[in-house]
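Memo to structure team: turn this sequence into structure tokens by end of day. - J.P.
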Amino acid sequence: MASAEIVDRVTAVVNEDIITLSELNKAIKPYKEKLASSGYSQEKMDTTLFNMKQEMLNNLVDRKITDQEAKKLGLTVSEKEVDNAIDQLKLSRRITQEDLEKALEQEGLTFKAYREKIREEILRPKLINFSVKSKVIITDEDIKTYYDAHPEIYAGIKKIYLRNILISGGALAVDALVQEKFNEVNAALISGQSFGEVARQYSQAPNAGDGGEIGLLSLDALSGEIADAVKDLAAGEHTTFIQTDQGYQMFFAETIEDGGPKPLESVSDEISKQLYNDIVEKKFKVWIKELREKSYVKNML
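Reply from structure team:
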């Protein structure tokens, strides 16, 4: 008689719990299907799949550890909370109870098992709120320190009121006719004509009749090449002709608005949220690491 085929085995021991191969395979199935259509060589697929399994097993271990911690702390999720979560899901997806149960059946899940899965998904955030988030306090001093340390974020946005002169030309080199136009424009500007007047006379852009007026723009609204050319201009200065996708252009900074720094009170909430998220992320990593160190974990993959 042939020996029975082994269809499942233990891939990790986490304190008094285990993680089976079937649990791991189920968790990694969506990623495995994407990998199968990646076009990778067999060798690269094998290496990638091995790394994915190890990473997913680590995630499942962390999940087991946090579930055990929640039980230890006596944290629970009521039936009402589970009901509300499922009702919200059905509402958002516009499905009936019957639709949900049919979809679960196709995934090999009973409704009872699905309720337990939802319970776990509610419990974990509760645990993190209790063990990590509730211990994070952001003070006014923290906010002020972050504000002072990041002037590049809160210094305000520089805006330049631009005009331009466009001379059409070849993409490879400046020919004699284009160079002649450059010389005429430069001579007119040196003679004291305003940039707007020169634009009306020489520019080949649609806005020539408006004196080459472009308007008030921040540097990040301009293409990289144009932003680089105008960023150091003072009011009343212009660039040399630079090559752009439209042709050769000269840009004139009519006025410059520095914007001024954003008041601390106007960005206080934004900074508080940023600091809170950063600290929670760091504390969560430390908390998980400490839980792992206190746990018995054996990887048997």
